[in-house]
Amino acid sequence: MKNKKLSGNLLKCLVAVVVALLVPVLLGGSSYMCLVACFVTIYTISASGLDVLYGYSGQISMGHAAFYAIGGYGAGLLSEYLGIPLFISMFIAAAIAALIGALLAFPASKLKFHFLSLATIAFGEIIYQIVTNSPGRITGNYNGFFHSKLDIFGLKLDNNIKFYYFGLVCVVLFLIAKTMIVRSRTGRAFIAIRENTQAAEGMGVNVRKYKIIAFAVSAFFVAFAGSMYLGLVGYLHPDMYLQKQSVLFVTMMLFGGSASLAGPIIGAISIEILLEGLRTFEEYQMLIYGILLLIVIVAMPGGIVGAVKNIKAGILRRRAQKLDKEV
Amino acid sequence: MRMLIQLIITGLALGGVYSLISMGYSLIYKASGLMTFAQGDILTVGAFLGLTFYRFLKLPYIVALLLTMAVAFIIGFLLEKGVIRKLLNKNVNAIYIVLATIAVSYIFQNGAQAIWSSKVEYFPSVFSTDSVAVLGVNVQPESLLCIGASMICMILLHFFMTKTRIGTSMRAAAMDSMAAESCGINVSLNTGITWGIAAGIAAIGGIFIGPMYGVYVTLGSKLGTKGFAGAVMGGYGNMYGAMVGGLLLGLLETLVAGYISSELRNLFAYIILIIFLFVKPTGIFNEQAIQDV
Amino acid sequence: MKLRKAAALFLAALMLLSLAACGGGGGKDETTDAVAEGETGGGEEGGESTGGTFKLGTFLQLTGANSVAGNESNNTLDMCIDYINEQGGFNGATIEKIVYDTQGSPEEAVKVAARLLEEDVDAIVGSVNSAEILAAGQQINDAGVFMMGLGTANTWMAEDWPYVFRATVNNANLATNTVAMLEEAGYTTVAIVNGQDDASLSTADVFEELCGEAGIEVLTRESYQTTDTDFSAQVASIVAQDPQCVYMTCSGEHIGPFVKQLRQGGYKGVLFSKEIMAMRDAEIAGDDNAKYTAASYPYVIYKDVESCDDPEIKEVLQMYVDRYGEMPTTEVVYRVWDTMMVMWEATKIAGSNESDDIVAAMPEVKVEGLGGPLTYDDGTREGYHTSNDWIYIGDGKNKEFSDWLAEDYEAYKTETGREY
After folding, report:
1. Which residue among C9, C23, C38 places its CB closest to the CB of A28?
2. Do A284 and B114 touch (CB under 8 A)?
3. pLDDT tier at C50 (50, 70, 90 boundaries)?
4. C96-109: burial string, b at 16+ Cβ within 10 Å, e else
5. What is the CATH number of the domain that holds A177?
6. Residue A237: closest C-alpha in chain C
7. Among the CATH numbers 1.10.530.10, 3.40.50.2300, 2.40.160.20, 3.50.50.60, which is that of C172-297+387-416?
8. C63 at the A interface (CB within 8 A)?
9. Is B292 among the domain residues?
10. Which of B60, B231, C23, C74 could form a Cys-Cys staple with A33, CB 3.0–4.6 A?
11. Which of the residues in chain B have pLDDT under 70?
12. Residues of A in contact with C2 (CB under 8 A)
C-alpha cells in the first residue's frame, strides 16, 4: 500500500519534470518567454527557501532580499577578485550566506513574531546600506556591478534556453534537498516548533538549534538564487535589493501555499505571469497588482494550494453527506 | 560648538516627524496586537489630501487640516473593517495581515500617483516666515510644529487610552478579545477606531512635512520604515516611548551623519533598531509585549 | 497529498500553456482574468515593416520615486510621434509606441527589454535612469536593435555597445565645464554633495577628479540617499567648512529641499549643480533661496511659455502645453525631442528603417538640437559636444554665467555679504 502511494507521487513528479523539460518547446523558443521561465526558476528556489523558514518552522522574514544580495554580490566578488570561477563561487557564496543567516538567527531566534519580522527588515536594510556604500566601492555602489554570464567549465550559458535548463536542474536539486530536509528528523522538529514552540521545548527539542538551522538553510537557497541571477543577467544594482524584493518572495510563497513542495513553485509561476501580464497597463501595473493582491489575500488566505485543499475537503464533505442521506 | 547645536536642533526636528509615525505603530499594536506597513503611505495620502484642500480648493488651513484628519480617519477605519477584520475573522496567520497591509501600501502609493500625479507638488507654507531661529540656529517652523503636534498627540492618546472608557475597552480588547467581548465590549468597533486614529496621526504628519519637502508619492514610505525603529526604541506599544524613541532616533541619526559620515546615517539607524531588538526588545520604557505568538 | 499534487500539476500545466499562448502573440496583449488564465495572445506578429509601421519600444520608470521624468518622457514621446507621423513618419512608416514600466528597478528593466525585443521593435528609446540602461543595454545591443538612451550618466556610454547612442548631454563633459566655471570665477575651494543614483555618483566622481587636476581643494564630500528627506547633517557639515562654493549632483525631488535647507543653514554662496534649476524645485526651495544656482547645461527650464526667449524651445513648450494643459516640470522634454529629431534624421539619411542602416547613417547626422548642435562624427556616439553656462537669478530667469560674473557679481557679493 505504501509502495503504491510512493510510486504514485514519484510518477507525478516525473510527469512534472517532463513537462518542465518541454517548456522551451511549448513557448516556441521565444527568448523573452524563456527569460521569464529562467526568472521563474530563480524565484522558485527563493520561495522554496523561504518556505523552509516560514512554512515549516514558522519564522517570518521580511528581509530575505539581504541573502539574495549576499549571494549575488558574494559570488560576483569572489569571482572578480579571487579568480574563482562563477560556478564554484555560487556555492561558496551560498555557504557564506548560510553562515550569516545562522549568525543572525542566533539572537533572532528568541524574538516573537512581529519583532522577528522587524529584525529581518532591519537586517535587509543593513545589507542594502553595505552594498550601496561598500568599502572601496568594490560592489560598484550605485553604478552597479558587471560580470560575465555563467560559464560552467567551458559550457557558456549565453542564451536563455540554455540557462533555463541549468535553472531547471538547480530547481530539481534544491527541491529534492528540501524534501529530504522536510521529511527528516530536522523537518519534524521544524514542524513541532511551528505548531507549538513551548510544547516542542517540553518534548526535548532544542528549539534554538533548529531555528538556526532553518534560517541557515533558507539563506543558502535564496543566496544561490541570487547568484543565479548574476549568472543570467550579468549586472547587479543595489536597487534590486530593496524591501520590495523581500516582499515579492514572501508573496510568491504565500500565494502558492506555504508548507508544501508545489506551493512555492505555483506561487513563483503565477505571480511572475501576473506581473508580466499586467505590463500592458503601463503605469497602472503596480496599482492593479496591489488591488489584485489584496483581493486574493482576503479571499484566499491559504494560497492556491490552500484553496485547492478547501475545494477537496468540500467535495469529500458533500460526498459524505450524500452517503449519510442514502443511509 | 555651533555645528553641534545645529545638529541637535535639526535632529530633534527630524525626530518630531518620526515620533508621529512611531506613535501610530504603537497605537495599533497596543490596541490590536498587529503590525501594519501602511502608515508611511497613509502619510503620503494625507499630504496629498491636505494639498488638495489647502492649495487647490483654497480652504483655510485649519479646515484643510481637520478635513484631512477626518478623511484619513475614515480611510483607516474602512481599512480595518474591510481588510483587517475580515482576515482576523478567518483566523489566518498574522503574516497574511502584514502582507495585506503591504498590498494596501502599494495601492495607496500608486493610487496617489494615479489620482494626483508623479510630480513633486508645492505645498505652500502656512507660516509667513521661511525659518525660525532657535538658539541661533535656523529651523523650519514646520519641524517645530511636528514636535509640538507629537507632544500633544502623545498626551492626548495616553489620556485617552488610560482614563477614558473607550480607551480602556480598546486595551482590554487587545489583551484578550474573547474576554472583552463577553464583557460587552464591541471589539470590532474599537479596533476600527484605533486604526482610524492612527491613520489620522499619520495624515497630520504628512500635512506638516509637506511644506518642508514638497509633496510626492514616495514621501512617506521610507519614513514609515524608520518609524518602526523609533517605536521599538521607546518600547513598542508605549505612547511616551514612541515619542521619545522617535526624537532619539532623529537626534542620533543626525549626529552620526554630521560627525561621522552622511553615508552611514541610515545604516546606523537600522543597526540601532536591530541592537534594540536583540538586546532590549521592550525598549527604553520597558513595555511588555501584549501578545506572545 | 495525492490530490494536492495533482491539482498543483494541473495548475502548473495550465500556467505553462498560457505562457505558451502569450509567447506566441506579438504586440500588445489583453489581460482578462490574470490570476488563472495568464495572457491570451492577441496582437499581430511584428516584423520588418518599412512603409507599414515602425515599432518604437521604450522602457521608462512610470511609477515610484522620481517617476516624473519617466512620465514626462512618455508624454513627450507621444507628442513627438504624432508630430513626425503627420509629416510622413519614418520613411513613410507610421511610428507606433510600445511602453512598459520599469518601476525604477534594473531587474524589471531586463525583463521589459526582453519583452520589447520579443515584440520585434525597430528601435528603442532607453530610460532616463542610467542604471536601467546599464542593466538592459547588453541584450539590446546583442540583438542588434538601435537604441537611444535618455540618461545623462557617462557610465553606460562607456560600455562597448555600437548600437547605443544618445542625444542628451554627457554629465562628465558637464563636470568639465563646471570646473571651468569655477576657474572662471576664481574659486579655489569647494564642497561636494552627491546623490546616490548612478548619474549623480559618477558625475561627482568625475568632478572631484577634475578639481584635483585643476588645483581646486575639495573641503568635504557629503552624500545622501534617494529616500532621504532631511539633509541637516550634511548642511551643518558644509556650513562649518565654509567653502567658497558648493557643487551638488542631486536629482529629482531632492534639489528643492536640499537648497532650502542649505540656505536656511546659513550658506549664501554660489551653488553649482549638475542639473539646471527647475521651476518646481525653485518653488519648493523658495525663489530667494534658489538664486545663485549655476549649472552648465545645453538648455534651461522656463516658468511659462511667454518667458521663453528661445524660439525653437518655445515652439516645443507650446506644443506640450496645448496638448497636456500644463508646463513640463523637467527638461526631459528637450531630451526626448532632440532624440526623436536625431532618429528621424538618421532614418532619412539611411533611407531605411533597419537598425543596421540607421547605425551606419548616424555619423552623418547633423541636427540643430534645442541646446546646440548635435553631431555624431567623432565615434563616441554622443551628440552634444558643447554646452552653455547658466546661473539662476530668481523669478524664473537664468542668465549666462560669464555675463553674470562681469555685470552682477559685485551686487551679489554686497547682497550676501560674502567675500566670494
Report:
1. C23
2. yes
3. very low
4. bbbbbbbbbbbbbb
5. 1.10.3470
6. C106
7. 3.40.50.2300
8. yes
9. no
10. C23
11. 289-293
12. 5, 8-9, 12
Take residue C250 and report the three cell numbers written for it: 542631486
Q: Is C34 on the interface with A (CB under 8 A)?
A: yes
Answer yes or no: is pLDDT of C46 > 80: no
Q: Scanning every residue of chain C, which has its alpha carbon at the shortest distance from the alpha carbon of B119?
A: C68
For residue B78, the domain's CATH number is 1.10.3470
Average pLDDT, chain A: 88
| B127 occurs within a structural domain | no
pLDDT in tens, C254-289: 888 899 888 888 888 999 998 888 888 888 888 888
Maximum alpha-carbon separation in chain B: 60
**Chain C neighbors of A5, CB-CB under 8 A:** 1-2
> Which tens digits make up the pLDDT trace of C85-127?
999 999 999 999 999 999 888 989 999 999 999 999 999 999 9
C-alpha angle C4-C5-C8 in degrees, rounded to nearest 5: 85
Is residue C51 predicted with pLDDT exceeding 70?
no
Confidence of residue C36 (pLDDT cuts 50, 70, 90): very low
Predicted pLDDT of residue C7: 44
Does A288 fall in a domain?
no
* ipTM above threshold 0.90: no
Domain count, chain A: 1
CATH superfamily, with its number, for domain C47-169+310-386? Response regulator (3.40.50.2300)
| Interfacial A residues in 108-127 facing B (CB < 8 Å) | 108, 111-115, 117-119, 121-123, 125-126
CB B247 within 8 A of CB B226: no
Q: Which cell goes with C18? A: 498560457
Read off the amino acid at residue C236: A
Where residue C335 falls among pLDDT bands split at 50, 70, 90? very high
C-alpha cell at C300: 534651461
Q: What is the mean pLDDT of residues A48-54?
A: 93
Domain membership flag for residue A6: no
Taking alpha carbons only, the member of C143, C236, C181, C245 closest to residue C399 is C181
* Amino acid letter for position B67: L
From A31, A39, A280, residue closest to C29, measured CB to CB: A280
- Is residue A15 a part of any domain in this protein? no
Distance from CA of B236 to the nearest CA of C (A): 24
Q: Residue holding cell 568599502?
A: A135
The CATH 3.40.50.2300 domain(s) of chain C lie at: 47-169+310-386, 172-297+387-416
Partners for C (CB, 8 Å, 3+ pairs)? A, B
Inter-chain contact B138–C228, Cβ cutoff 8 Å?
no
- Give residue A116's domain range: 23-283
- DSSP class of A64: T
Nearest Cα residue to A146 out of C134, B188, B22: C134
- Among the residue ranges B48-57, B246-255, C4-13, C143-152, the one predicted with the least confidence is C4-13
Interface check for C25 against chain A (CB to CB < 8 A): the answer is no
Say what the pTM is.
0.86
- Determine the straight-line distance between the first and last CA of chain A, rounded to whole angstroms: 29
